[in-house]
Every structure is written in C-alpha cells, then in structure tokens.
Amino acid sequence: MRSTRVSDTHSARRVAPGKRRLRLLLWVAACSLLVGIAQLGQPLEDFLRDTRNLAHKEPASGNLVVVGIDDRSLEQVGKWPWPRRHHASLVANLRRAGAKEIFFDIDFSFAGEPQDDEAFQKILAEGEGDVLLPARVVVDAHTGKQADLLPIEAFRNEAELVSINAIYNFRGEFRKLPYRFGVSGRAYPSLAARAAHVSGPAGESFPIDFSIDPRSLPILSAADVLRGGTAGHGLAGKTVLIGTTSARLGDMWLVPGYGVMSGVFLQALGAETLLAGKPVEIGWLLPFLLGFAIAAGLLLLKDLRVAAAGMAAAAAVFLFAPIVLEDRLIFVDVVPSVLFLLVMSGFLTWASLKRFYSARGNINAISGLPNLNVLREQEADRAAGLVVAKVHNYAEIASALSSEGEQTLVRQIAHRLKLISLGSTLYQSDEGIFAWFADQDTSAAPGEHLNAAFEIFRSPLLVLGSQIDTTITFGIDMRAEEPLAGRLGSSLVAADKALREGLKWKQYDPSESEDIVWKLSLLSQLDQAIDSGELWIAFQPKMDVANGTIVGAEALARWNHPEKGPINPVDFILAAEQSGRIAKLTDYVLDRSIEAAAQLNQQCKPFNIAVNLSARLIDGMALTDTVARLLTRHRLPAEFLTLEITETAALAGAGGDLQVLKDLRGMGVQLSIDDYGTGLSTLDYMKRIPATEIKIDKSFIDAIEKSRSDRLMVHSTIQLAHSLGQKVVAEGVERPATLEMLAVMGCDIAQGFLIGRPQPLEELEQLLGKGRRAA
What angle, 0 to 180 degrees and rounded to 10, lies between the N-to-C axes of helices 582-603 and 569-578? Predict the structure, then answer.
C-alpha cells in the first residue's frame, strides 16, 4: 500500500513542473512583448545594426556624385548664401559634363537679387526637368510651429520638387527616409527615392543601409565645378547631389557608425540603398513569434539542459541571421526575440543547475542512497514508525580507510540494514547514520525486530581483507503526528541514549523533552546564575593530620536553581568545559575564593584556599594575569592560594602549558595534582611538574583498610612525594580508622566528610572560631 501512495504523490508532482514551465514561458513572453511594443530595446537594436554594418562595409555604386559646398568653395565665392548666379553656373557646368540629373539640397525658399534669380530661373528653363529643387517642413524649436518651405514660385514653375525631410530618432540620429513626404498639402517624393527612381506611398519609410561607406561616394568641391574643372571625374550619365558640406553652414547630422556628416550624405546613402533594391522591413513581431514557437517546442523536452542549450542556440541564430538578411536588404529587429530566448535559456539553465545540485544534495555521495533531506519530504510514510541506526564508531573507522574502503564499509552496512528494513527505502546521512520507516509489524512490536537487527551486526564487517567491528544502536520514534524533522532528531537522541545506557535500542520518550530543553539552555542559564548570584561557593575543610587543626579548605561551586533546585556540579561544570565557556565560571570561583581566603587570613593565619582548575585554561598566559590581578585586588599572599589540576591535565602539559604552571609557581602560588593515581603517572613527569602537593584520589583512600595493594600504593606515594619535597593530601576520608592509618603513613593533609562537609563561608568561620579543631 505504501508504494501506491508514493507513486500517486510523485504523479501529482510531475504535473507541477509543466505548469511552472508554462508560467515561465508566458511571463518572459509578456516582458519581451513590452520591450518590443515600447521600443525599449531600440538602442541595443541600433547598436547591433551598427556593429554589423561595420563588420561588412560595402562601397557606393558610383552612380551618384556629391558636389559639396565646402570651406574652399566658401572662400572662393564669398559670403553665404550665394547669389543664385553661382548655382546657375554649377548647373551649366554639370550639364556640360554630362550629368543626367542634378538635385539641390539647398534652401531656395527666399528671393535673392532679381538678376541672379532670373539667371537661375533661365538655366532651369533651359533643361528638360533635369534639375530638382528641395521642399521641406521645418519646426521652430522654441514655438513648436511648423513651416513649409518651398522654392520661390519662379523656380517652382521650372523644376520638379523633392522632399529633403528625414526621420530621426530620440537620439537625433537619422536612420530612415520617407518615400514621399507632405509639404503644403502635397506629397513630394523624397530626394533619395527620386534619385534612385523608386516610388513608394506617402507615410511609408525605408531604412538607410549604413553598411554603405559614405566615404566611398564620389565627391567634388563646388569650387572646382565653378571653375569648370569637371573633366576626368566621369560625370556623364551620373546623378549629382549638390549640398553644403562645410561645418560652418550647419546642416550637420549624426550618421550612425561614422559620426557627424552633412545632410546631403544622408540623402546620398538613402539613394544608394534604393539603387541596390527596395528594402524590406520585417520589424520585431514576426521574429518574436518565431522565437516563442521555438521556445514552446523546446519546453516539451524533459531535459532542461537540452532545452536551455536549444534556446541559446536559437538566440545566436537570431543574433547573426541579420548579417545575411541585411545583405539582401531585409531589415529585421531581433532584440525582443533574442532577449526572450536568452532569458528563457538562463532560467532553464538555472533550473537545471538547481535540479542537478538538488539531486546531488539529495543523494549520499558514497553509497548513492537518498539522504535525510529526501526522508523529510516523505509525508506519505509519516504514519509509520521512524527507525534510526547509528554507527557510533563510524568516524573512527572511516578515518583509517581509503575512499574505496569507506565505500565498501558503507555498502556492507547498507546491505545488512536493507535486510532489516524489509523493503522500505533506506536513507543515509553522514557519519554512519541510517534511517527508514518501519512496517506495521515492526511499529507494533519494535523490540523483537530491533533486537534481531542488533544481532546482525555482531559479526564483523569484511572491508578490504580486514575484519571491522561496529558499535551500533537503534532509536525509534512512533509519534505519527509530529513533523518528520523533529522525529528524526528524536530517534537520534534515542539511539545515543541507548548507547549510554548499554542498550541495543531505545524508543523515544516524549517526557524526556523537558530535560533535553533544560540541558540545551543550561549554559545560558549558568551565565545568568553567575550574574544574579544563584551560584555560590561552598568550602570543604582540610585538616593537618599531625595536629588535627583546620589549615585550609577547598572551594567548590554550587548552584541553587530557582525552579530545579540544587544542580549537580558535574553537569554544569562538564558542560561549561565541553563548550569552551569554563573561563567565566573559573574567574567567578577564583574571585570569591581569594576574597574569602583574604578575609579568613585576617582572622587567623595561616589559612589556604584550594581551587580546582580546568585543563582547558592551562593553555595561555591569560591565567597567570588573572590570578595575579585577583591576588593584588584582595591583598592575599600567593602562598595561601592552591590551584588544583587533574593528574591527566598536568601530565599532558608541555611547552606553553608547562610554562604557565612554572609561572604560577614562580608567583608563589601552590600547585596540587588532583585525583593522583587515576592517570598515567611517571617519575619523569613528577620531576618536571612544579607541584607542591599531591592529592590522592578518593578511590584509593577509601580502600586502604581492606586492600593491601591500595594501602601499599598510598604509602609509597606519600614517601615518594616527601622525597620530592611535596605534601600529600588524602581526599575522601570518611572513617576514623582511615584517618588513623593515614597518620601512621605520614600523610600531611586530610579532607572528607569526617573532617567536614562543603559549607557556606559563615559556617566555616564559625568552625574556625571554635579553635580550628575538626569535628
């Protein structure tokens, strides 16, 4: 039944990607349509076209010749505007040179000197319509009023008129020319269209082909033509365009790809464009629809990487196809379609990468099993019990194996667990954690099943010829109503607790959650307890065995929680050490203990205070600075402070650690090796450590009455310490007989319940006030 539910769930999920793809397609299409409709991509479109033009420059046909009124012409003739007789001379000389048609791009809308105008009119009349004059519409930049400028009537009657208006964009660039343009209620052919003898409807324009290099146009100076110097320029049968080319006369416009040029060159390029053929403008909508169709088709593919690559390839085709099309005078706008395809490709590539890394993130790299991320999504199985198997020595084993060995290890573990999981999907996390959902039989009676699972791992694993034993326990959480992430953590807690309690498996008990929350918050509450005064110092008396007087005390941290009551010192001290937060606790105990020692020594000298020191603090010079600062603040001589360090920590001291101990001893502080006998003592280390006393562990002191070997060990330790000039403290003295035996052995100091229990400072002061004799 479970497999059916999972299949149904996956079937429902397979529909979602299709919907997401369709939604993506429509959203990106809508944005690209907006770019096309609002012409937001036009600057980029123009840039791409200019780049293509520069990549495949074409020379002019040579059928058009520009006669420019340049600076040399102005210097020769004089002020501008020229008297019309000079224009008449230009026409006459060009006719003699065989020019087919002559187009003026010069304003003739105002009357000049009568004799000059009459001379020009006469030269116009002598021809057979071979001279064409300009008509244009101008708009006043200040008032916005439109004015129609036509040649004066005398000239209009003798010459054909052409429009010289061009179409420029918001950047002031001329990129199109009209076929016909209306001036004074009449549509005149544009100069470019008439020069190329191409007709088109009014209101329709054509793009200028700027791949034609304007510098390849044949150019003559008007000064040379006026002097009759046209021979050798091949003007016969050519069309001539006359216009101003001097920058001093204005009429300068931005020619895309070439900078600023005079208007006559724009007209010449327009005519050259039409001479090559009539341009076809496709626009942006048709390429966009084609790109949309391609993208929609590619989205049907299951492999997102192939679809993304296909769209990127289509975008590249759209980007470079205009090079071929424009060579055939087919102009197309591709920015909306390229943008659409690239964005779609980008989204699909991102989705493919996410899916790829998600798949990698959902698979354990060593075993190929689905990991716990996949488990957390399996809502269909949440009603079943969740079992976790934890190999506690996995890290130790894996560190000794090669990559191949670790793979073999994991596969063998997984193989055995699959026998246990009875066909359920096995999930694996790192560090030897595996999980699966139990079937109904296992969930009803997990004990028998998990006991059998434990037995399977009693036989060692065979990895690359070596037998390897595993330490494994199982945890199970049966709470179907809880989120899977929480159940997974609870099962792990149960597995860890099973190890601590020596069990094979353990079922999670929800009643333990409160204790877990308490332990997690213990450290932060400890900091608060120090600041609020909940933490206090108890003092356990220490007695001189020879005379029975109290000569010191050991300072012990105690915590009375307002809700939990007294907290076991082992719990909070161990937690502080493991988390690296022992320094604050130690500073607090040192401060209060040294303050108490100073107070007691004012009443009855000498009196020594012993403070336990964490091994984690013997690794830097900050400890010596702290001790020196506190001794100075409370005015306590250093010899009245004893710092107790465990034997293991002392024997591990080397280099900087051992130097800290020497610096403390150099200050006069007494050093005691605590719990002596529980570590790996050697005579060499005993000589190196600058200790002033040895504190024999309670486990040995408690056994000297019954165990001859313990009695001999304690006696020999006392003799060894005395030979090294050290005192001996016996801790855990609880019976008079024990104290008597220690006195016979020559022990110096005794500490334990027989001498006195840990007590507040006030009670210790009362004890000392009674004569400092132990009870």
Answer: 130
Q: Are 657 and 618 in contact (CB under 8 A)?
A: yes
Q: In this structure, what token pair is assigned to residue 660?
A: 């800290």
**CA-to-CA distance for 83 and 115, rounded, in angstroms?**
9
- Angstrom CA distances, 676 to 94, 177, 648, stand at 123, 104, 9
Q: What is the pLDDT of residues 475-485, one digit of tens each?
A: 888 887 777 77
Instruction: Calculate the alpha carbon distances from 675 to 149, 612, 646, 679, 731 in Å.
Output: 114, 11, 6, 8, 9
DSSP 8-class letter at 511 = G
State how far the Cα of 105 lies from the Cα of 66, in Å rounded to an integer: 10
Round the CA-based radius of gyration of the chain to a whole number and report it. 51
What's the rounded Cα separation, in Å, for the pair 61 and 69?
A: 22
- State the DSSP code for 531: H
Q: How many CB atoms lie within 10 A of CB 445?
A: 9
- Cβ partners under 8 Å of residue 642, min gap 6: 552, 608, 609, 610, 611, 669, 670, 671, 672, 692, 693
pTM, full prediction: 0.50
Q: What is the pLDDT of residues 188-236, one digit of tens each?
A: 999 999 999 999 888 899 999 999 999 999 999 999 999 988 777 789 9
Could you give the C-alpha distances from 367 to 371, 393, 426, 462, 495, in angstroms and in order? 10, 18, 11, 17, 22
Q: How does strand 386-391 pair with strand 472-477?
A: antiparallel
Structure confidence by residue, pLDDT tens digits, 43-82? 888 888 888 888 888 999 999 999 999 999 999 998 889 9
Residues in the chain: 775
Rounded CA separation 656/276 (Å): 90
Pick the more confident residue, 440 or 526. Answer: 526
- Kind plus residue range of the DSSP H or E element containing 387: strand 386-391
Q: Does residue 396 register a pLDDT over 90?
A: no
